[in-house]
Design goal:
Layout (H helix, E strand, L loop, with lengths): L4 H17 L11 E6 L6 H9 L5 E4 H8 L7 H20 L4 E4 L5 H14 L2 E8 L2 H12 L12 H8 L10 E4 L5 H16 L2
Parallel strand pairs: 1-3, 1-4, 2-3, 4-5
Helix pairs in contact: 1-4, 3-4, 4-5
Length: about 200
């Protein structure tokens, strides 16, 4: 669907607001990567992302943090999410064109939404790495219960078990090659594999 002029103008403003909310941006590289982390609430996306960026320089874009930068009191409506991700995708495309390596931490459950990311990666010739995280429901339940109690101060998500159950029905298969990681086990081997793939891509510049 084509955007109206007012929506385009709003998106430009939103992109600038998101950009101004970013902390330190990694230096550009000749061959950037885009790591896309996906999974249901409580699957360990943010923890996995933190572990990954500790080993390789990536700009981590966490949808929960960006949402609150755009909407200080988020409502999590479909319209709000649509506006957020339109701005996110534009920001990601701009940063990749500048050579900034990106990690996107979001649920990324719908293939139609992921296809926008596939398109961006192809347009800017960035390496696309897809990672789907999962865990047994009973593990996720305990994690989400801990979230409501503020167990992890670095957890910025507000999603609870009800959100998990609602989102579970909207999951769609990933149609591209991707990693599948069960975060109820040791994630170190998966981190090592992804870091190796990123470094191999960057070294071939």
């Amino acid at each position: 669907m084509e955007e109206t002029q007012s929506k385009v103008s709003q998106r430009v403003k939103d992109v600038e607001k998101l950009r101004s909310s970013l902390s330190e941006i990694p230096p550009p590289v000749a061959r950037p990567v885009m790591v896309v982390i996906g999974g249901l609430p409580g699957s360990g996306k943010s923890y996995f992302s933190r572990r990954l960026v500790a080993h390789v320089s990536l700009l981590a874009l966490e949808s929960d943090v960006l949402r609150k930068a755009l909407f200080p009191n988020p409502s999590y409506t479909a319209a709000e999410s649509d506006r957020l991700f339109r701005a996110c995708y534009s920001l990601i495309a701009d940063l990749l064109r500048q050579g900034v390596p990106i990690l996107l931490d979001a649920t990324n459950l719908v293939e139609g939404h992921r296809e926008r990311l596939y398109y961006i990666a192809e347009q800017v010739e960035a390496k696309l790495i897809l990672i789907y995280l999962k865990a047994p429901p009973e593990v996720i339940y305990e994690r989400l219960k801990g979230r409501s109690q503020g167990v992890d101060p670095e957890d910025h998500s507000s999603a609870d078990w009800r959100v998990y159950e609602r989102m579970h029905s909207s999951m769609e298969p990933i149609r591209r090659n991707h990693y599948v990681v069960d975060t109820s086990s040791d994630i170190s081997p998966a981190i090592t594999k992804v870091v190796r793939e990123i470094r191999r891509w960057m070294r071939t510049a």
